[in-house]
Write a structure and sequence with these properties.
Helix content of chain B: over 70%
Strand content of chain A: under 5%
Order of helices and strands of chain A: HHHHHHHHHHHHH
Strand content of chain B: under 5%
Number of strands of chain B: 0
Oligomer: heterodimer
Number of helices of chain A: 13
Largest interface: A-B, 38 and 47 residues
Largest sheet of chain A: none
Distance between the termini of chain A: 23 Å
Largest sheet of chain B: none
Shape of chain A: elongated
């Protein structure tokens, strides 16, 4: 990321207040979930006589069906949701960047094979495949991260390939090639740094979809399992109490919406900041 | 045109072939022995082996795959491990509900997205544009199941206006009853799709408005409305068709969750139930059907594409 892009980003953030809000929201949510242990309540301590209390000053989000403090549980749940989103994004971005640059740089048969593979993977109804894999593998946070990462890298690979195709014809790459540098060196030292802004944008939007996927799977009971909880699995539980304890469904869902929305807004702002002429609409 | 369709269908064959291998392997790798569902306590070891032989399960895996492929090509998807009914019948029963829901939500989302997207783009950065853009941002970010829960809470529990479960009230057999059951799931799916379409339509319209032909139309005295609906709409529909093709997997995925929440008796809820009960023949049949729908959807998108834009009518 060079200086001009950094300045563009700052200008864009000043112009678009939503971007600043998104960054603030994400920072607050991340810090809150990291420092969840500061909460006076134990997320797993049951106080059966306090079950299903409405939100109050002592229980900001009320209590759940076992009388556990819902605010504390939401913070710990956020830790899982954010971690899954972030780590799945790392896997997807690493895979997508590798496949995309190799495919774009070498071209020819290899490119053809890799892109056919991406086409095929993209045309399997991925949500269904996710469900199936998750049903066969043991549901749990690690498998969830792995599966979501492995199912969402294809978009990134396509974008990275397209960018690589245009960058590899630039003179500095041709020069590097003529001067005998290895392909690995050219890709890592010349191509990837020059398409980094595209990768950053794609990765940001990828976190948003990873968090959404995680919450859907956990909501169906195929994701994060007890005693762990994520926002999605909290909603799975809340579904049964929608009549008598409305707040159980309200808060986790709102937190998911806020997080995903922030990542989407941030991704779009980064895109405009990095390519102002093309994307400013 | 027929040439194009045939060519596209031929291109789809390797894809479907690959998916068939994946779904076959899924059954083979699954835990449990399918013979067990036929075994009764009074059977001897020989009886069990005879069943295994009759089912062809003692053959090498590639022989089993070829047999299975021949079977599904002739329409024999086997029997459900749970209900012991033919899988094809189970899916055929569910198709009308799924197609009804998908079709109506697609139609609704286009009816919302096209006029709103054009209008928002024409008044870029006005209050209406800001409002609509904000709502569509929420639409692509909201967890679809949570939105469904909100609607159920509001319209079924609080206002008691609409039913939240199933497709029919027991004992009632009227179209209005089915429509009433369909409103909430249709709204949930349409909100998400409309948001995706709207964002594309809006940004495409904005770039079209800068084109020369638009300026010329204005110079000839066309009103904004004429330019938008006669000239820009046609050009904007192109990317919408691509997005339509691309959004089919999402639609299928979204339908799994939406159908499950509303207990809508479609293919999606059947899929989720069969995953929970490890009903492999059903899971695999639904995988094949969803992929087939995807291929057909993309084909429709291609055909529509060449109708709307003669320039890209493929040669040969």
């Amino acid at each position: 990321m060079n200086k001009r892009r950094w300045q563009n980003l700052k200008r864009e953030l000043v112009r678009n207040k939503f971007g600043l809000a998104a960054i603030l929201i994400l920072a607050v949510l991340t810090l809150a979930s990291l420092f969840a242990f500061l909460s006076p309540y134990d997320p797993n301590k049951m106080e059966i006589q306090d079950r299903l209390q409405a939100p109050s000053w002592s229980h900001l989000f009320g209590t759940d069906d076992y009388g556990r403090d819902y605010f504390t549980r939401a913070l710990y749940g956020g830790r899982v949701s954010l971690a899954v989103g972030f780590l799945a994004m790392i896997i997807a971005t690493a895979l997508g960047t590798t496949v995309g640059t190799i495919s774009g740089y070498f071209g020819g048969k290899l490119d053809n094979i890799l892109m056919r593979m991406v086409d095929i993977l993209m045309s399997i109804p991925s949500f269904f495949l996710l469900l199936i894999l998750n049903a066969y593998l043991k549901p749990g946070v690690q498998n969830l991260i792995l599966i979501i990462g492995l199912m969402t890298w294809m978009d990134i690979a396509r974008i990275v390939r397209a960018e690589t195709l245009s960058v590899k014809e630039r003179e500095y790459v041709l020069y590097a090639r003529v001067s005998g540098q290895s392909s690995f060196f050219i890709i890592t030292k010349h191509i990837i740094p020059n398409i980094s802004s595209t990768i950053i944008v794609a990765a940001t939007l990828n976190i948003a979809s990873a968090i959404l996927l995680e919450s859907s799977l956990s909501f169906l009971g195929l994701g994060v399992q007890q005693p762990n909880s994520s926002w999605g699995s909290m909603l799975n539980n809340a579904q049964g109490y929608i009549g008598d304890a409305w707040h159980l469904a309200l808060f986790p869902g709102f937190l998911i919406l806020l997080t995903v929305l922030s990542f989407n807004v941030l991704g779009d702002i980064l895109r405009v900041a990095f390519e102002p002429k093309v994307n400013d609409r | 045109m027929i040439k194009v369709i045939v060519k596209r269908l031929l291109q789809a064959i390797p894809l479907l072939f690959f998916i068939s291998i994946v779904s076959f392997l899924l059954i083979k790798l699954a835990p449990g022995d399918p013979v067990q569902s036929f075994v009764t306590p009074d059977m001897s070891q020989e009886d069990v082996e005879r069943i295994r032989h009759n089912l062809g399960l003692d053959q090498p895996i590639y022989v089993q795959y070829v047999r299975w492929l021949i079977n599904i090509l002739s329409g024999d998807f086997g029997y459900s491990l749970i209900s012991h009914r033919p899988v094809l019948t189970m899916i055929a029963e569910r198709l009308p509900a799924t197609f009804g829901l998908m079709g109506s939500s697609l139609l609704l989302s286009l009816l919302i997205a096209i006029p709103l997207g054009l209008y928002a783009a024409a008044n870029k950065n006005g209050w209406f544009d800001r409002l609509i853009s904000g709502i569509s941002y929420v639409g692509i970010s909201i967890p679809i199941f949570w939105f469904a829960l909100l609607l159920i809470y509001l319209f079924s529990l609080k206002l008691n206006l609409l039913p939240s479960i199933g497709m029919r009230t027991i004992g009632v057999n009227s179209a209005w009853d089915v429509i009433k059951h369909g409103i909430l799931p249709c709204l949930v799916l349409a909100f998400q799709n409309a948001s995706v379409y709207l964002r594309y339509i809006r940004s495409n319209t904005i770039s079209q408005l800068e084109e020369d032909y638009v300026q010329i139309q204005y110079a000839f005295g066309s009103t904004k409305r004429e330019v938008l609906f006669h000239h820009i709409l046609r050009n904007v529909l192109l990317p919408v068709i691509t997005i339509f093709g691309l959004s089919i997997p999402n639609l299928i995925g979204g339908a799994f969750i939406t159908e499950t929440i509303f207990s809508w008796p479609g293919m999606g809820s059947l899929g989720v139930t069969s995953i929970f009960s490890f009903d492999y023949p059903v899971i695999m049949a639904i995988t094949m059907f969803s992929s087939l729908m995807l291929v057909i959807g993309n084909l429709i998108a291609d055909i529509l594409y060449s109708i709307v834009d003669p320039r890209i009518r493929p040669k040969g």
